[in-house]
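Priority: medium. Attachment 1 of 2:
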């Protein structure tokens, strides 16, 4: 075993390797279960000595519980700087394993929507704590952030932070493009002093990924010409979920939460974080601000009545997770179903529904309304009668002239004038023809309102609702048989299930695929491609930026994974598949019971509404009847 010397003179023994990276390795310290040692690879220690020594001298490890800051510097027995000690981070996993639905199933199997939100809050608290020490993370990305099974957050690789001590500024020399703000895209980091506002961009991306199922906020479909990769979209301010769609020319991928699902404050914070820098005079939302608004969301959560793993902001109304899972056809969290009441006796409930008395046939609508009082002839009716009287007087005169002509001058023209006058006068005296269009419209309106009233004031609406609830009851009664059939079907396709499990265990993010780096992996994840199973089930060519050539590389990788599959007939049916069936049936049962529990109250309310309508007809019905009677009165 190797012996190293602490800056306080203590001799430590390096034990087993806990992890390795590009800069060095982290070792167990034999003398302490709580301390680990980071030893740099040859040639790396010299560049980090000044920063690590300053961090140790300034006691940063005492100023934040969220970071594995250097505690003591480490040297060889000959005095050569080797690295530093730090608190051991045990039982924590990468935040990427949490926000990716595929990896979350195995790495955080009990995590639900509230766990993700609490992790986002703790991440914001951690970044705020780091900024309070005077550090800037700089290279903020998923690889340096760890989460425990209690949603606690710790940041590692603190020696890569930017830190100013006295007159010296020790810069952060690297960065991941997918978490780098637009103003620093393509920058040479060893020549730039970064700020907390730069970190705030990467923090917003990580919070977005935690809340939005691992989707990257700048991965979407570009509505302009060509494709838009994540780095270019960040540089152009093209937030794919923004309400500024006409400006960003982007739309989000399918099967994602809506930006407003977490409330207006969260929506505004994301819009502010991803707005082009020139339009952010006050800077991006800070870590402390994110902590505050996310705590506000947490305090206003409602737990889904169907699946207890779903929690959502009350102001949203219906559970957005249920809607999303139904659209996707799979669960995002380990389902937690329970009956919405102690347990219901379905037979008793259905009997109560069947025996409820339905409303009788409603009375005649005219009788329900009664006589219309105070109805008088309208001005239009009076005018029509005045015109009719004038026409009658003129007609009498014309007839008199016609008779005179027949007897004294010309029998033919006199007869023609008399007959023509009689015909014209007869038509003018008939007021029905003058009001025919209005009368027709009034009758149609009255008949329509009568039909609507009969539906609501009679048994029709009640019986339709009763039939609906009885159908739900029949579905509920058939769930046990449905579950047996589904479980039996699993036994018949055991090989297929084993293959799917094998493919699903091979994650794209952990694979080495030609021409598919971190940026393209993030785009694939944003479109629901997380494992070899996703690639075998759907075409990658539907993802922006993935043409036939690139898709061929990814599909070739998935096929190579499939070729390694070996079927084992002696292995029982995959417990996860069995549980998926049971969860699906439990979800259906919970949804049906939720609706059925409302049945008797709903039917009672319908019956009450019917009685009310009979004694108090709706105004639309009264108005239609009044209009018809007014026209009939005007016609006379």
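Attachment 2 of 2:
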């Amino acid at each position: 075993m190797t012996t190293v010397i602490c800056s306080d003179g203590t001799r430590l023994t390096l034990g087993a390797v806990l992890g390795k990276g590009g800069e060095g390795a982290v070792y167990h310290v034999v003398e302490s279960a709580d301390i680990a040692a980071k030893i740099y690879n040859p040639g790396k220690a010299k560049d980090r000595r000044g920063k690590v020594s300053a961090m140790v001298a300034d006691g940063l490890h005492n100023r934040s519980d969220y970071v594995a800051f250097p505690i003591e510097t480490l040297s060889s027995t000959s005095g050569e700087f080797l690295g530093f000690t730090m608190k051991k981070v045990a039982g924590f996993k990468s935040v990427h394993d949490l926000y990716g639905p595929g990896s979350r199933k195995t790495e955080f199997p009990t995590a639900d929507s509230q766990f993700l939100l609490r992790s986002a809050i703790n991440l914001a608290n951690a970044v705020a704590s780091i900024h309070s020490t005077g550090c800037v993370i700089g290279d903020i990305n998923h690889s340096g952030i760890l989460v425990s099974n209690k949603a606690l957050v710790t940041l590692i690789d603190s020696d890569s932070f930017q830190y100013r001590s006295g007159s010296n500024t020790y810069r952060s020399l690297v960065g991941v493009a997918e978490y780098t703000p637009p103003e620093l895209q393509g920058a040479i980091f060893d020549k730039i002093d970064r700020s907390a506002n730069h970190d705030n961009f990467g923090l917003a991306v990580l919070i977005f990924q935690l809340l939005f199922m691992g989707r990257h906020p700048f991965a979407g479909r570009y509505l302009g010409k060509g494709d838009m990769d994540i780095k270019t979209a960040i540089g152009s301010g093209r937030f794919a979920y923004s309400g500024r769609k006409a400006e960003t020319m982007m739309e989000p991928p399918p099967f994602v939460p809506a930006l407003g699902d977490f409330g207006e404050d969260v929506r505004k914070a994301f819009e502010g974080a991803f707005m082009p820098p020139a339009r952010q005079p006050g800077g991006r939302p800070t870590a402390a601000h994110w902590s505050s608004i996310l705590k506000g969301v947490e305090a206003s959560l409602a737990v889904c009545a169907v699946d207890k793993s779903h929690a959502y902001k009350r102001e949203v109304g219906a559970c957005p997770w249920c809607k999303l899972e139904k659209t996707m056809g799979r669960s995002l969290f380990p389902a937690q179903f329970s009956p919405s009441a102690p347990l219901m006796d379905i037979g008793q409930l259905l009997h109560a529904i069947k025996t409820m008395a339905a409303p009788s046939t409603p009375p005649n609508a005219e009788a329900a309304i009664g006589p219309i009082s105070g109805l008088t002839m309208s001005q239009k009716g009076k005018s029509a009668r005045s015109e009719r009287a004038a026409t009658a007087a003129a007609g009498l005169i014309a007839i008199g002239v016609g008779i005179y002509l027949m007897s004294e001058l010309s029998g033919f023209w006199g007869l023609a004038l008399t007959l023509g006058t009689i015909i014209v006068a007869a038509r003018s005296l008939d007021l029905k023809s003058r009001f025919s269009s209005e009368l027709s419209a009034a009758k149609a309106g009255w008949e329509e309102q009568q039909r609507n009233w009969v539906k609501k004031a009679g048994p029709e609406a009640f019986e339709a609702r009763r039939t609906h609830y009885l159908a739900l009851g029949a579905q509920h009664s058939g769930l046990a048989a449905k579950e047996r059939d589904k479980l039996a079907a699993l036994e018949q396709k055991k090989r297929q299930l084993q293959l799917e499990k094998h493919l699903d265990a091979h994650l794209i993010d952990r694979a080495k695929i030609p021409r598919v780096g971190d940026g393209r992996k993030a785009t694939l994840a944003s479109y629901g491609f997380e494992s070899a199973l996703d690639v075998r089930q759907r075409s990658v060519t539907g993802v922006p930026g993935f043409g036939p050539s690139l898709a061929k590389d990814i599909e070739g990788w998935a096929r190579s994974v499939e070729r390694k599959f070996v079927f084992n007939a002696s292995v029982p049916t995959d417990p996860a598949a069995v549980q998926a069936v049971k969860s699906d049936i439990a979800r259906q049962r919970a949804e049906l019971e939720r609706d059925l529990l409302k049945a008797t109250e709903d039917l009672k309310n319908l019956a009450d509404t019917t009685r009310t309508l009979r004694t108090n007809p709706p105004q639309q019905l009264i108005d239609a009847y009044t209009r018809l009677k007014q026209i009939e009165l005007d016609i006379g």
